[in-house]
Design goal:
Blueprint: E1 4-7, H1 17-34, H2 39-53, H3 63-69, H4 76-82, H5 93-100, E2 105-110, H6 114-124, E3 132-135, H7 136-139, H8 147-157, E4 164-168, H9 171-180, E5 184-188, E6 206-207, H10 210-216
Parallel strand pairs: 1-2, 1-4, 2-3, 4-5, 5-6
Helix pairs in contact: 1-2, 5-10
The structure holds magnesium ion.
Magnesium ion binds near residues 8 and 11.
Length: about 220
């Protein structure tokens, strides 16, 4: 018997564009001004720095650490606010949350830092649907690439893995890892695939829109 549905946030309930604007536009723009170079040059340099860390590492998610590293004076709060108009729910997010919220307890399990999660939930007014809101990286100092994050989640919510469903757009972090610990998981195939999407999606439970979830559950 399923009791809880856990959602990733970026690229799953909220368009991934917001994070992309902060990380790949806002930060390079500040950098280009400070170091007097073109935006494209700054973007390329910064991209390389991000990639040298990678999204499996906690440091990838720590915006203040990156601002420090690049010695930029803009604060993370200012940056997040600057692009907040880019925050946009994915199609059907509201209807699906409204519907599922009547049948299940809903939680957020995101890799994004707490400040991003808070901003996105407030801007979309989605906070009201969720009983628990968890930033794996800020609250648990873990990335969702690890079995132990999902094991911790089950413990925290006091359910066994077969009582939770997880949905997210990252084939590994949101599907393979939670599936491995026994959580029924669905990979939302977004229009813009992940960088590592060359991964074979065969054998994964996939959906092409949140609406499809309603038929599958
Ligand atoms: Mg995501």
């Amino acid at each position: 018997m399923k009791k809880i549905i856990s959602f990733d946030l970026d690229g799953t309930l909220v368009n991934a564009r917001y994070g992309d604007m902060v990380w790949n536009h806002g930060i390079p723009l500040e950098y280009s001004k400070k170091y007097n170079m073109s935006f494209d040059e700054a973007k390329g340099l910064i991209r390389k720095q991000y990639e040298s860390v990678g999204d499996a590492d906690l440091l990838w998610y720590e915006i203040d650490r990156w601002l420090d590293k690049f010695q930029l004076s803009v604060t993370s709060e200012e940056l997040l606010e600057r692009y907040e108009s880019q925050i946009e729910p994915v199609p059907y997010a509201q209807e699906v949350l409204e519907y599922l919220g009547q049948k299940y307890m809903l939680v957020i399990a995101s890799n994004a830092a707490r400040i991003f999660v808070d901003k996105e939930l407030d801007y979309t007014n989605f906070r009201r649907y969720f009983t628990r809101i968890i930033s794996a990286t800020s609250d648990c100092k873990m990335v969702k690439k690890e079995d132990r994050f999902y094991q911790w989640l089950c413990g925290e919510l006091q359910v066994s893995p077969d009582e939770i469903i997880h949905i997210g757009d990252h084939p590994v972090f949101d599907h393979d890892i939670p599936s491995r610990v026994g959580i029924e998981s669905y990979c939302l195939m977004s229009e813009q695939p992940h960088a590592d999407d060359s991964l074979d999606l065969d054998g994964r439970r996939t959906i092409t829109s949140l609406k499809e979830l309603l038929d599958r559950l």
